[in-house]
Amino acid sequence: MSVFVSGATGFIAQHIVNDLLQQNYKVIGTARSQEKVDKLIKQFGNNKNFSMEIVKDVADINAFDDVFKRRGSEIKYVLHTASPFHFNVTDAEKDLLIPAVNGTKGILSSIKKYAPKNVERFVVTSSFAAVSDLEDQSNSNVIYTEKDWCKLNWQTAQANAVAAYWGSKTFAEKAAWEFLEENKDSVSLKITAINPVYVFGPQLFDEDVTAKLNTSCEFINSLVHSTPETKVEKTCAGNFIDVRDVSKAHILAFQKEETIGKRLILSEGPFGMQDIVNTLNKDFPQLKGKIAPTYEETDVKLNKNFAKINNDETKKILGFKFRTFDETVDDTAKQILRVEKRL
Ligand code: NDP
């Protein structure tokens, strides 16, 4: 039986596919075009346990029908990672909200139609965006847990690009839980949601280190390429987690019984852009003097002006220690510098 990974070309999904193959699972991945399918198959060395299918656009509610009709009987676990993650929004509904929500509704409806009994577990890559509220982010009295939900509605989610992304993840995750409630008698699957904060870490393949990286790693990439004149915010930018831990959590999410019905907040702690700069200056002598300068007094160190996260329940369920800030920043930067022959 196989594990199905939607959006296998993504930054996080490539690590998941790699870890699954190392654990000897058969993996079926999806990508939007034949070109992307061919590239990934080649990058994974034509691994006999890895096959790929084209799913052109998850905004099409029937996008997953064809693949589940043909291969649904092979699939036991589904990891749904495909969803747009960017802030280049001209039309909030078209660019983010509809693809995210239809993607989740569509894949679940294809499972119901073509693999209702053999798909046992469904892991949806949601986000901490589905947990937190944008206006509370700088409220130091707020402590988020796995029980919290972003309060945006379809209308308020269209206020700007960030709200649209927050809304896209919130409504997509809600769609999964609602599907289960409405269809619990007609499908076998159990759901786990993965709610990561900003995900850093190396790209799985060096050849994917291009001038611009995926949205979250671009935070680090932009600072590796900053100048001494770059103006860096000293405040908290969010929380971080390493991609290798996110991958591990997706796999444990379908392997463990304790994850059933849970939302898992993946976060190791807060960070600010200045903290990234400080780590780069500390650990890479070749960058010192060439990038933005170090300031020790950041809001994160002073521990003020931002909401906190209590993800003790997630940590207890998963049972492994997350990578540190320095490790994830260093490994991301090391790969960029190696590819640019500056290491
Ligand atoms: P990537 O942009 O690298 O991956 C996104 C994946 O979704 C790609 O495979 C992409 O395909 C696919 N995709 C996007 N839009 C569509 C569409 N309309 N139709 C079909 N496929 C589509 O981002 P990440 O790996 O960072 O994100 C993966 C998941 O993790 C997303 O659900 C994201 O919301 C979530 N997440 C990410 C965080 C982060 O900090 N990185 C934090 C929290 C959650 P293609 O390669 O062709 O563009």
TrEMBL record:
<dbReference type="Pfam" id="PF01370">
    <property type="entry name" value="Epimerase"/>
</dbReference>
<dbReference type="InterPro" id="IPR001509">
    <property type="entry name" value="Epimerase_deHydtase"/>
</dbReference>
<dbReference type="InterPro" id="IPR050425">
    <property type="entry name" value="NAD(P)_dehydrat-like"/>
</dbReference>
<dbReference type="InterPro" id="IPR036291">
    <property type="entry name" value="NAD(P)-bd_dom_sf"/>
</dbReference>
<keyword id="KW-0560">Oxidoreductase</keyword>
<feature type="domain" description="NAD-dependent epimerase/dehydratase">
    <location>
        <begin position="3"/>
        <end position="260"/>
    </location>
</feature>
<comment type="similarity">
    <text>Belongs to the NAD(P)-dependent epimerase/dehydratase family. Dihydroflavonol-4-reductase subfamily.</text>
</comment>
<dbReference type="GO" id="GO:0016616">
    <property type="term" value="F:oxidoreductase activity, acting on the CH-OH group of donors, NAD or NADP as acceptor"/>
</dbReference>
<protein>
    <recommendedName>
        <fullName>NAD-dependent epimerase/dehydratase domain-containing protein</fullName>
    </recommendedName>
</protein>
